[in-house]
Amino acid sequence: MTTGKKGFEEKKKPVISYWAKDKIECPVCHKPFEMEVMHKGNGRMIAGNLTDELHRMFMPSKKFGRIYPLIYDIGTCPKCHASFFWKDFTDIRDSSSFDRIQQDEEKRKAAVETVFPYYNLKSERTLYDGAAMYYLALLCYEKVDIAYAPTFKRGMICLRLAWICKDLERVCPGHNYNYVAEVFYRKALFFYQQTLINETGRIESIESVSNFGPDMDKNYGYDGVIYLCGLLEYKYGQREDEELRLKKLDEYKRSIARIFGLGKSSKSKPGPLLEVARGLYDKLAAELSSNNIFSEDD
């Protein structure tokens, strides 16, 4: 009796990523490891809406299901758990930064395991593994010299971590990932605002930043950073001191009005950014107006 092979074949798992031919050498422990890269063709990435946080949503496909491109933007050494944006594995050349990261290895691993226990760095990554890698990167950039714009990068990492944690809550509800997302949103607010303070005060330059994201599909530049500072303040800023909150909202309303011309069309700025900036401006104006606070641009 013969049985067709087809009846015994397991359904093939959709291929989302591949291992690059050339390995990456970890600048911290100097051990080589494989670079996982996401395939981007054949209907894997079906672009959906852009959120007010400049986060591109992707629709699930019948063949590949729902994918999360962001998780492939970070690399992590499985030996010492050093974690960076892939480009920084070669761009950062400060031995003191690497020494600090190496000395902090056990503390860094323990901190991540309290939030994302049992993550895996040696096989194809999952959404959960990606969250752990981003958190490891957040702690690594804490030790990186200011010449490499770590404050901005920590801000973008925190914002992406908030998005990833919200995705985790959707696929695995009941594990408090929404609460963790709120924590990372507030951290993102701090780092984005500190980025502006450091840049204007000539404390830490962001000239080395080639892509301000915050997502992977488009670079919204420095204007995007200013917009996100205002948006994050509006959505996740403190509410204990109402007077201080309104003062900050008024400052961001002025900044947005000045930069974006109150949402009027401009060839020099991305259209989607103008659209969300106008929406934020209207929300800020409404809240300030309800508290009888009016700016000169009203």
End-to-end separation:
84 Å
Order of helices and strands: EEEEEEEEHHHHHHHHH
Give the integer mean of the pLDDT values.
90
Side-by-side strand order of the widest sheet: 1-4
Q: Radius of gyration from the CA trace?
A: 21 Å
Low-confidence runs: 1-10
For the sheet with most strands, the description reads:
2 strands, antiparallel
Strand content: 5-15%
Q: Percent helix among the residues?
A: 40-55%
By DSSP, the count of extended strands is 8
Task: Give a brief rundown of this model.
With 298 residues, this protein is mainly alpha-helical. Helix content is 47%, strand content 8%.
Structure, described:
With 298 residues, this protein is mainly alpha-helical. Helix content is 47%, strand content 8%. The protein has 9 helices and 8 strands. The chain has helices at 88-91, 95-103, 105-115, 127-141, 150-171, 177-200, 221-236, 242-260, 271-290, and strands at residues 17-19, 24-25, 32-33, 36-38, 46-50, 56-59, 74-76, 83-85. The chain has a two-stranded antiparallel ribbon. Strands 2-3 form a two-stranded antiparallel sheet. A hairpin with a 6-residue loop joins strand 7 and strand 8 (83-85). Helix 4 packs antiparallel against helix 5 (150-171) and helix 6 (177-200) crosses helix 7. The longest helix is centred in the middle third of the chain and has 24 residues, at 177-200. It is globular and about 60 Å long.
